[in-house]
User: Fold this.
Amino acid sequence: MQAVLASVAYIAAQMMADIASLKILNIAGFSVDGGTLVYAITFTLRDMVHKTAGIKTARALVIAGAVINVVMAGMFWLISILPPDLSVGTQEAFNQVLAPVWRIVIASIISEVLSELIDTEVYQLWVNKYGPKKQWLRVLTSNGVSIPLDSMLFSWIAFGGTMPAAIVWSIVLSNVLIKFAITLFSLPGIYTVSEKFPKTEVEG
Assistant:
């Protein structure tokens, strides 16, 4: 049950983050996509699934999340190009807000999959070496690798070549700082689930 609830929360957070990313916020002078505020917790949620259900389930969850987000973007695109019922108005607001920007979608999917899969491997290496000790540190270690990677991949794939390099690096920095701050907030979640797989679980 714990793995199911954590998995549902992970997928929901992934979907909310992709939708929220359509709005760019100004936080402390930094430009930050709204999805960052939600997406950052997915790393800890992935760790919680990993802890309760093992590395194979964690990997499958990451891939499932990517597929669901691609399907969601495709659905929004299809709805945006279908003719509206003019009896209730033009409904242009839907296209303006939810029609996907494919470069952003591609950047999001690539960064999510690569960073979360690497998070999975780093987490497992920690568990294999140290077992159940210092669970907060296993989360910080895995997130400490995946968060900067995710931020760099997303920012450069999404905005590289369309903005000055200094601005892209500023987006990377702001994303990393915010994601780490949210990680510290969500980190205690790792103690709310039970460890059900041995530390020596072998990759398959």
User: Anything to note?
Assistant: Residues 15 and 68 are 8 Å apart (CA to CA).
